[in-house]
Amino acid sequence: DSAEASPSVVFENIERCSPNCLQMLLENISGLTVDVDFTVELIPEINVAVATFIKSIDTKEFVDKCSQHKRVREFKMTARLLELTQTIKAENLPESISTDYLTVYFESARNGGGPVSDVQLFPEENSAIVTFCDHKGNT
Questions:
Q1: Quick one: which of 29, 54, 69, 72 is 20 to 30 A from 104 by CA?
Q2: Domain membership flag for residue 2
Q3: Is the pTM of this model over 0.70?
Q4: Dihedral, CA of residue 56, residue 58, residue 59 and residue 64, to nearest 10
Q5: Same domain assignment for residues 102 and 69
Q6: Is 112 left (phi over 0), alpha (psi -120 to 50) or beta?
């Protein structure tokens, strides 16, 4: 089942840990290098960060390591696997964007995509909901 584990780990309650501190902490725990082996995306609106591993690792084991790590507990952060999903929301899209363009963009392997089954455009919000044929093409 570990082959189906998400390559992304969600860290919640990150407000006590600066972005640089978080990156160093994750490097220390994983033994990997930020921007080479994994990326960290901050979502300050909901006090969350998402680490996505480029290098293949056992993310379940990494989550366990994080949960037991002294500093992670001191910062009162939690770590969990990001749920795999078939649907994403794309935001801040240009007004002239088409569903065809979004379909081709999200099907591009270079962009981490995969086969798209549906695109719903919401021009009033400059957003779209993209549904993939399976959960592997939406990293």
A1: 54
A2: no
A3: no
A4: -150
A5: no
A6: left
